[in-house]
Amino acid sequence: MASIDISNIQKSYGIMPVLQGIDLEIQDGEFVVLVGPSGCGKSTLLRMIAGLEHVTDGEIRIDGRRVNELAPKDRDIAMVFQSYALYPHMSVAKNMSYSLRLRKVASDKIATIIAGAATKLGLGPLMERRPKALSGGQRQRVAMGRAIVREPKAFLFDEPLSNLDARLREQMRAEIKKLHKDLGATSIYVTHDQIEAMTLADRIVAMHGGSIQQVGRPLDLYDRPANLFVAGFIGSPGMNFFEGRVSVVGERSSLTLADGIVLPLPAATALQSGERATLGIRPEHVVLEPAAAGDIRARIDLIEPTGFGMILHLTLGTVSFKAFTLNRAYLQAGGDIGVRFPAEHSHLFDKDGQALNRP
Amino acid sequence: MALHAGGPDTYQGGHHGDRRPFRQRLADASAPYLYSAPALILIVTVMLVPLILGISYAFRDIQLLNPFSGGFIGLEHFKTLSQDQNFYRAFRNTLWWTGASVSLQFVFGLILALLLDKPFWGRAIVQALVFLPWAVPSFLAGLNWAWLFNPVVGPLPHWLFAMGIMAEPTNILSDPQLAMWGPIIANVWWGIPFFAITLLAALQAIPRDLYEAASIDGAGPVRRFLSITLPFLAPTIAITVLLRTVWVSNFADLIIVMTNGGPADRTQIVASYIFTQAFKRLDFGYASAIALVLLGLLIVYSMLIVVLRQWLLNKD
Q: Are B213 and A71 in contact (CB < 8 Å)?
């Protein structure tokens, strides 16, 4: 197990910059998830840690040792690929023992290690099969097995679950978490799926456009997103945004939307009258009231029952937004409903999209 | 499928329960055969008739210059053949010619394919140029190389002399010890692109992340070649080597053009010996007998390769 220090990492292909100055310290035994939309540079960063991509500038240290110039095989890390990258001409057992055989580990010892990993992953009866005779979930397990038999300094996961169907993904997610609890290994996990990020991570690194947007524990990112990108990316259905101009009258401040609708803002803001700002609120925090009681009325365009609750597609003036409710009773598409945005759950972002600290 | 087109309902309830008139039944039963007949007849005419005629020549005395020949003589040709020292020499030369040509073509083709698999500036142009020899007619390639080896018009003997490899700039095609190397070199030049093309296609079908996974697992370049590239190429290698071997052992064009089997029959291979018997001595019967033996040997060889390939695919 090891710590991984990344300082001021840059990567560019020709003149195209992909990563611009990434700084990240990963503690020994920590599970860090790099999350972001495709093209944000998260996979590139992971592959640079693995040694599969050249580092343009900056430094990567594993356990305090600079590894920039080391070949992947000398870094003592294991990686699980999105495609699993199993050796199709080798049996499951051979796939898993390949790295050990290359290291000239004694064959009786290899047998013990492989048997242990097979039990842990439930691969026992499949050991003599070829990868093509396995299902997606089983292949995924073999790929994990190949990584754990090594007892490497760190595990790298490159979107390992994205080729599985939803149910299997959920199951494997839990297994990965359990495995990490058992092994306590330093892990870096890349995904574009924010639910995977939320459920697995000790710490999430949200990335966008080649730079880190926010680093923190999953609920910190959820409750206190640092900017509009993180606020919109984390959470499903995503946060609602209302853009407008601030007006401050005495103690009270409010936000005037483009079509003249006025939303009250949390009392104390650092914003001046006339500044542009964005109010954000998560769908589950929108309070729904009977139309008569509410100050603000929205039209219900569409109702999506999820079974667990209902997602309402609403329109306020010309702005569309969503609300989530557990109440099934009185709602009907086409009708009006009163909405309220509680101050304690409102997020406010300045004109550059940076979050304003709430008191 | 066509043969089953009658299907279960044609024979529903067997012949006893079938109430259709006899002619109707006959028409239904023969329909699939009638539909496939034109194609079958064409294939039989084009493929089997010449083959059977050729094989029949091997058991007949057919000499173009002898109007009284043509009779059935049984295994007479094969008896002659078993004592024909020229045939045995041609056979040894064939092994030598085929083995050297195919293995050199394969080795250079593989190296070329591995080089072309790596991206570099101008790769598309280099790829196109590399495959050019394959487009040259074999007859032209033979003439070209014959001239290159000729000290009067070609530069090669002079270069070899200047480098100290040859004692004097002579034509290796007229040296009984070295003559076979002439057509072999021409054949290697001509045949490398075939291996390069097919192996390059196979190389490019290997998923890149396997190499990445192997390098993370601790494999250096040599191990990666041995445990990923080779297993992936093995089926292609087996099939291309098989094809080329059959092809090259039958391939007399370069030898006929460059040395015509000489000097002193040193470059005579079985295929060129057949050519000589048939079109120089005009003894078609004997030539057919030799061809039949060659065919048998190649079939045995092909079977061996097919078995070997199956074994490789099913191993571990």
A: no
Domains of chain B as residue ranges with CATH: 2-57 (no CATH), 76-314 (1.10.3720.10)
- Which of A190, A212, A233 terminates a domain? The answer is A233
Its domain, for residue A68, covers 4-233
Strand A203-208 with A31-35, pairing: parallel
Instruction: Report yes or no: B222 at the A interface, CB cutoff 8 Å.
Output: no
Residue A359 falls inside a structural domain? no
Tokens of A162: 């994205």
- Tens-place pLDDT, residues B282-310: 888 888 889 899 889 888 988 887 888 78
A132 shares contact with chain B (CB less than 8 Å): no
Q: Assign residue A223 the CATH number of its domain.
A: 3.40.50.300
CB distance from B181 to chain A under 8 Å?
no
Contact residues, chain A, for B312 at CB < 8 Å: none
Taking residue A182's Cβ as centre, other Cβ atoms within 10 Å add up to 10
Q: What is the ipTM of this complex?
A: 0.84
What proportion of chain A, given as a percentage, has pLDDT over 90? 47
Please state whether the predicted TM-score (pTM) of the whole model is above 0.90: no
DSSP element (H, E) containing A206: strand A203-208
Quick check: B223 and A83 CB within 8 A? no
Q: Which residue on chain A is closest to B313 by alpha carbon?
A: A89
**What confidence tens digit (pLDDT) does each residue in B74-115 have?**
788 888 888 888 888 888 989 999 999 999 999 999 999 999
Cis omega before residue B133 (within 30°)? no
Task: Please give the Cα distance from B169 to B161 (Å, whole number).
Answer: 5
B interface test, pick of A46, A79, A83, A89 with most B CB neighbours within 10 Å: A89
Question: Among residues A217, A233, A249, which one ends one of the domains?
Answer: A233
For residues A255 and A203, membership in a common domain is answered with no
CB within 8 Å of B58: residues ≥ 6 apart: B77, B78, B285, B288, B289, B291, B292
Report the gap between the CA of A174 and the closest CA in chain B (Å): 24
Residue A45 domain-assigned (yes or no): yes
| Cα–Cα distance, A73 to A50 (Å, whole number) | 9
Is A103 in CB contact (< 8 Å) with chain B? yes
Q: What pLDDT digit, counting tens, does each position of A167-179 carry?
A: 888 988 998 998 8
* Best mutation target, A44, A46, A87, A149, to test chain B (most B CBs within 10 A): A87
A249 touching B, CB under 8 A?
Answer: no
Q: What confidence tens digit (pLDDT) does each residue in B70-83 have?
A: 778 878 888 888 88
- Minimal CA–CA distance to B231: which of B307, B117, B146, B316? B316
